[in-house]
Specification:
Homodimer. By secondary structure, the protein is an alpha/beta fold. 41% of the residues lie in helices and 20% in strands. The protein is built from 16 helices and 14 strands. An 8-stranded mixed β-sheet has the order 5-4-3-2-1-6-8-7, with helices on both faces. A hairpin with an 8-residue loop joins strand 13 and strand 14. The structure holds adenosine-5'-diphosphate. Adenosine-5'-diphosphate binds next to helix 11 and helix 13.
Length: 409
């Protein structure tokens, strides 16, 4: 089956085309700066080892997706003969609210429900939905499937997801913790099960998945289900991130609005875009820069790094009693997969509970590997995440289910 995975952002469209029968990626890429000067598509046609970066005047998302589809069948760069070969499109959707606890085929009713979720994450959701509508128009024959970043966390118990504010706000507005990075945390849980093979044992496992990228979150996974996570109503909550503050005293918001004479929205924008590691270090949100400058004696870089590690470790600690223990600690995403220094420094904070990593194994980066010693009380793994593969997998199962329903009826 040929499956297209799409992630539509405000000015970008990330895509990956799979041939799931041959188990290969046919093409992948990124259309960026959509609607701006210098818009371009970076395209990789893996079948033929094609790597191109072309400037296109992409006035909007529809033109971007049209151009990408054209590249799939291009005389020189093409990987399929006809767009009709694409049988399903998996859309990465940021927020499914309480309505969606599993991936779903998109029909008009589902689209209406998705539109109701826009108010929970307007910036992302309007573009996610635009992507769906464009594909309904351009690849009409394919089953459109919504795969949510929130759905994996729908198994959290109420005492974990309700905020301690008047209960009426939850009832009236559905203000609660939802959690994000669910596609990545689910992939990690699935890989742990595959790596350990013994399914019966996996049922009982207590895992903490550390997705440490530009955005960062932890997830407590018990018996394969998310039972708590660090992000909240929005991805601003929880850990300190590249540019996001994570958890702070909410009273800081009106205080800063008054002192800086800016609106509440502007303060929230500062917390989303100018805070976290960037806010402390000042020069960059990229952890490679922070690590390099901290090593060269820059005290603000040192502080940003110390704060990040301290906060990740503190949050891991808070999730251990939630599960009644910890069997497996997994590091994933840009920092989790590639920074042996950050992994080592986080694990060092748990020496007292018997976590021990092998310094040599931990130097390996970007690969799937167990880095704990045989004496460690907790297995520590590095698992490179593959959210697109997870979306493709979910999309296929929904599409297959739809086609068998069609055959029955
Ligand atoms: P996102 O998908 O949220 O944009 P990624 O998972 O791609 O984020 O992670 C991006 C982050 O990973 C960046 O902050 C980058 O600096 C960091 N990163 C990548 N490689 C390394 C490395 N070798 N050492 C430290 N950080 C790294």
């Amino acid at each position: 089956m040929k499956v297209l995975v799409l992630n539509c952002g405000s000015s970008s469209v990330k895509y990956k085309l799979y041939d799931t029968d041959a188990n290969i990626v046919l093409a992948e890429g990124l259309a960026e700066r959509i609607g701006m000067q210098g818009s371009r598509i970076k395209h990789l046609g893996l079948g033929e080892n094609i790597k191109i970066s072309i400037e296109y005047a992409l006035s909007g998302h529809e033109e971007a997706i049209k151009t990408v589809l054209h590249l799939f069948t291009h005389d020189n760069y093409g990987v399929i003969k006809n767009i009709d070969e694409i049988q399903a499109v998996g859309h990465r959707i940021l927020h499914g609210g309480e309505r969606f606890s599993s991936p779903v085929a998109i029909d008009n009713e589902v689209l209406d429900l998705l539109i109701q979720c826009v108010e929970l994450a307007p910036l992302h959701m309007q573009h996610n939905i635009a992507g769906i509508k464009i594909c309904q128009k351009l690849i009409n024959h394919a089953t459109q499937v919504a795969v949510f970043d929130t759905e994996f966390h729908q198994t959290m118990p109420d005492y974990a997801y309700i905020y301690p504010i008047p209960y009426d706000y939850y009832k009236k507005y559905k203000v609660r913790k939802y959690g994000f990075h669910g596609i990545s945390h689910k992939y990690v849980a699935q890989r742990v099960a595959e790596i350990l093979c013994d399914k019966s044992k996996v049922e009982d496992l207590k895992i903490i998945s550390c997705h440490l990228g530009n955005g960062a979150s932890l997830c407590a996974i018990k018996s394969g289900k998310s039972i708590d996570t660090t992000m909240g109503l929005t991805p601003l909550a929880g850990l300190m991130m590249g540019t996001r503050s994570g958890d702070i005293d909410p009273a800081v918001i009106p205080f800063l609005a008054e002192k800086e004479r800016i609106s509440l929205e502007e303060v929230v924008k500062v917390l989303n875009e100018k805070s976290g590691v960037l806010g402390i270090f000042g020069a960059s949100s990229d952890f490679r820069d922070v690590i390099k400058d901290a090593g060269a004696g820059n005290d603000r870089a040192r502080l940003a790094l110390d704060m990040f590690i301290y906060r990740v470790a503190k949050s891991i600690g808070s999730l251990i009693p939630v599960m009644g223990g910890l069997d497996i600690l997994v590091f994933t995403a840009g920092i989790g997969e590639n920074s042996s220094e950050i992994r080592r420094r986080i694990c060092e904070k748990f020496v007292n509970i018997g976590i021990e990593i092998d310094e040599q194994l931990n130097l390996e980066n970007g690969a799937e590997i167990e880095i704990s010693t045989v004496n460690s009380t907790v297995k520590v793994l590095v698992i490179p995440t593959d959210e697109e593969k997870m979306i493709a997998q979910e999309t296929i199962s929904v599409a297959k289910c739809c086609s068998s329903h069609k055959m029955i009826s």
